Amino acid sequence: MKRFIFVVAAIVLGCSAVSAQQKGDIYFGGMTGITIQTTTAGGGETAAGFAIQPEFGGFVAKNCKLGISAGYAISGGIHTFTLTPNFSYYVRLCDNVYYTPGIEAGLAMAAAGGATAAGIGVGLQLFTMEFRPTKHFGFTASLASLNFVAMEVAAFSFDLGVNPTVGVRYYF
């Protein structure tokens, strides 16, 4: 047991040298998770699904991240593809833990039952955290978000707070 505590202490002390996000840092990563959506069109249906979202970006100023992501989700028989630029601000909570609220806006395409539609979407990440145990790796978790998607066929999707996702990032 003493060895285990010694190893954990050595890892924590070795990781404490990671500083705040600096201008010029570039990363590649992605997120995956579950989605639960309530749609106001068609009688207000609720559906659960799965989403995956690779992302690339960098820091344009100290603690200010600008990125772009391409996402795919399936929920209730509806396949959705999104392409969204995003912005996050990193607030350091303790040594390697950051609160990273953000906003994203972009294009959305959906297909269901042979019909396709395109539209726009806006998202606000209210409770997103990142843990950076080393200089090159970060682990993210998003627990609460507010999203709105408007499609050309007058279908609106609005969901609040039920989009838990986890992800990993590699910093160059």
Topology of helices and strands:
Blueprint: H1 2-15, E1 26-39, E2 46-61, E3 64-75, E4 78-89, E5 91-94, E6 97-99, E7 102-112, E8 115-131, E9 137-151, E10 156-160, E11 165-171
Antiparallel strand pairs: 1-2, 1-10, 1-11, 2-3, 3-4, 4-7, 5-6, 6-8, 7-8, 8-9, 9-10, 9-11
Notes on the structure:
8% of the residues lie in helices and 67% in strands. The protein has 172 residues and is mainly β. Strands 1, 2, 3, 4, 5, 6, 7, 8, 9, 10 and 11 form an eleven-stranded antiparallel beta sheet that branches. Strand 9 (137-151) and strand 10 (156-160) form a beta hairpin. The chain is elongated. The model is unreliable at 7-20 (pLDDT under 50).
Could you estimate the helical fraction of the residues in percent?
Answer: under 10%
Task: List the total number of helices.
Answer: 1
- Main sheet: strands, sense, barrel: 11 strands, antiparallel
Global Rg: 18 Å
Question: Residue-averaged pLDDT, rounded?
Answer: 79
Q: Strand tally, please?
A: 11
